[in-house]
Design a protein that fits this description.
The complex is a heterodimer of chains A (142) and B (435).
Chain A lengths: L1 E9 L4 H11 L4 E8 L3 E8 L2 H10 L4 E12 L4 H11 L4 E6 L7 E8 L2 H10 L3 E2 L9
Antiparallel strand pairs in A: 1-3, 1-4, 2-3, 4-6, 4-7, 5-6
Chain B lengths: L6 H4 L3 H22 L1 H9 L21 H6 L13 E7 L7 E6 H17 L7 E4 L7 H12 L3 E3 L6 H11 L3 E4 L1 H13 L11 E5 L5 H11 L2 E8 L4 E7 L6 E3 L4 E6 L13 E7 L10 E7 L1 E2 L11 E2 L4 E2 L4 E3 L2 E3 L1 H10 L6 E8 L2 E9 L9 H19 L4 E5 L3 H6 L5 E3 L1 H4 L1
Parallel strand pairs in B: 3-4, 3-5, 5-6, 6-7, 18-21, 19-20
Antiparallel strand pairs in B: 1-2, 7-8, 8-9, 9-14, 10-11, 11-12, 12-15, 13-14, 16-17, 18-19
The chains are: A alpha+beta (142), B alpha/beta (435).
């Protein structure tokens, strides 16, 4: 289980830049990032090297920040690797709220970040099928 | 179980009230016409004479009066009796303009006492009670109005006036006061200081409070009731009419009964001046029908509310007005519908949003478009688009069902509105630029 930071971003030029600049200034590294957007606003989701520090910096900028538990799965980096994982989840009726991929990858593995309806069942499913999850420590996140 | 101060009026039949109002209106119009040159001139230019006013049905024929009339005739131009018959003056501080002054005869003070006494009895007070009055005593009508009412019911009156909250709390404790009269914001302040002093509601004996003279929300009511351990009642009034006691709340807490034997209330469209049917929101207009010294006719309050008849569970037949929902000065007309920023604010707060919002009105293809921009809080935020969009939709639905027009909601980051303008600007009407 990994803590993800979610930030409310107003759909306005320069907003994303100011958030990333603040993290850079605080010496926080972004390990993974995705943006969900609508015409009015966006939700920036990130895995960062120091969750607490990043949350504090963004908080001081009056950003709306929340922390969410996500699962990082090591998916075999070969054709059909992701399809198999998603197929297993569909078969077990685990709904994906959102997913995105991690910057960089492990040896012969692609790291995918998942936010699902039932994390406990996902972990059990992955374990039963010999698939690995990646811990915060392995990602250099504290 | 229900107690009234003057049951013969408070629970009278509609016919009785109406007959009383007609008789008193006719008398007052004649009194005003004969004694106030300003009103006489106004009526003459409207082509109305006292002979045209034969019952309440003719009220609409009279011209309106407004605050500017009071300023134009300052200080004594609207007095309908010689000053030797005036026993009291009150004035309204002129925070939004020049100060105004009103006068009372001995008879007028009696009426006012009765009006406030009804409010106290409706709040469950009697001659057994100790009434602590923290409204300011002086030219402001709050302190002395409450004082008249408390004395009228024979309660023990504690005229503390405003200020020095710690001392107020000491008095509340030592004297064992049971009823509190002050502004709702001051009641909350008393609650805060009580906490700071390491005390709770159990250290005081308050069981009812009558709060007014400023706008307050139901959320404030809940807080006051919970922190001070009392039941909070609303009261309505304005200096121009008589002061606090024009209308008062009963234990049902769903609006205020208008003292109709003294004041006739009408609801009008603030744009056209047309009288609106019962249950429709509009500007509240009052006519004094028993006062001698300062009887205003069809006075436009600029307060927006709804008036409704129908039996109240308390047994009173006096019609009820809602808490004022805003001021006509803030009114927006959108697609022909009157909209008040305060209505939008109420919905936002009910739905858990902050009061940091802005209403942007624009016009495209000859249609008015409204966007309500509101800053979100941590409590509202969700990290999925689906949930956040749903929150916005729910707010749009709630606004639509209240206002009767479709409104678009835009969620903003905190501090965006206040930061850019320095001071809260509630309404941005871009339509004006197109005219």
């Amino acid at each position: 289980m990994v803590k993800q930071l979610s930030v409310f971003i107003q759909n306005e030029s320069g907003k994303l830049a100011s958030v990333t600049e603040a993290l850079a200034w605080a010496g926080v590294d972004i390990r993974a990032l995705s943006i969900a957007d609508t015409t009015d606003f966006g939700i920036l989701r990130m895995l960062v090297s120091d969750v607490q520090k990043a949350a504090e910096v963004l908080d001081s900028l009056n950003c709306i920040v929340s922390q969410t538990d996500v699962t990082v799965v090591a998916v075999p980096d070969q054709p059909g690797g992701l399809a198999r994982v998603l197929g297993l989840m569909a078969g077990a009726n685990i709904d994906i709220e959102y997913m995105y991929s991690l910057i960089g990858r492990g040896e012969e593995k692609a790291y995918m970040v998942f936010r699902v309806s039932d994390e406990d069942r996902l972990l059990k499913l992955l374990w039963e099928n010999g698939l690995q999850t990646v811990s915060a420590a392995e990602l250099g996140i504290r | 179980m229900h107690r009234y101060y003057q049951p013969e009026i408070e629970t009278a039949s509609r016919e009785t009230i109406r007959a009383l109002q007609s008789e008193r209106l006719v008398r007052t119009v004649r009194h005003v016409y004969e004694n106030v040159p300003f009103y006489r001139a106004k009526m003459e230019s409207a082509g109305v004479t006292p002979d045209d006013i034969r019952s309440v049905d003719d009220l609409h024929r009279l011209p309106f009066s407004c605050k500017q009339d009071l300023r134009d005739t300052y200080p004594y131009g609207l007095f309908a009796v010689p000053l030797k018959d005036v026993v009291r003056l009150h004035a309204s501080s002129g925070t939004t303009g020049k100060q105004i002054v009103v006068g009372y005869t001995r008879h007028d003070l009696e009426i006012w006492s009765d009006c406030f006494a009804r409010a106290l009895v409706a709040a469950g007070a009697s001659d057994e009670d100790i009434v602590h009055i923290s409204y300011g005593y002086g030219l402001f009508t709050g302190g002395l109005g409450a004082d008249l009412g408390a004395q009228r019911i024979g309660a023990t009156t504690v005229p503390v006036s405003s200020g020095n909250t710690q001392r107020q709390i000491t008095i509340l404790r030592d004297f064992g006061s049971t009823v509190l009269c002050c502004t709702p914001s001051y009641a909350l302040h008393i609650a805060e200081v009580l906490e700071e002093m390491g005390l709770t509601k159990d250290d005081i004996r308050l069981r009812a409070g009558i709060f007014g003279a400023e706008p307050w929300t139901n959320e404030m009511r809940r807080q006051i009731e919970q922190k001070l351990g009392l039941k909070a009642f609303d009261i309505y009034g304005l200096t121009e009419i008589v002061g606090p006691g024009v209308a008062f709340e009963c234990e049902e807490q769903t609006g205020m009964h208008v003292n109709e034997d003294n004041f006739i209330v009408e609801v009008i469209d603030p744009e056209t001046g047309e009288v609106l049917p019962e249950g429709t929101q509009g500007e509240l207009v009052f006519t004094c029908i028993t006062k001698e010294a300062f009887p205003v006719l069809r006075y436009r309050t600029r307060d927006v509310g709804v008036v409704s008849r129908g039996t109240c569970s308390c047994g009173r037949t006096l019609l009820k007005m809602t808490k004022p929902r805003g001021r006509t000065d803030d009114m927006l007309i959108i697609r022909g519908v009157n909209v008040f920023p305060s209505q939008i604010e109420t919905v936002l707060i009910e739905k858990g949003y902050t009061a940091n919002y802005q209403i942007v009105v624009d016009r495209a293809n000859n249609t008015d478009l409204v966007e309500v921009q509101v800053e979100i809080s941590r409590e509202i935020f969700s990290d999925t688009v689906k949930n956040l969009t749903k929150k916005g939709r729910e707010l749009e639905e709630a606004l639509k069902s209240l206002l009767g027009i479709a409104v678009k909601v835009k969620l903003l980051e905190p501090n965006t509105l206040t930061r850019s303008t320095g001071k809260a600007v509630r309404v941005v009407d871009k339509r004006k630029l197109l005219d």
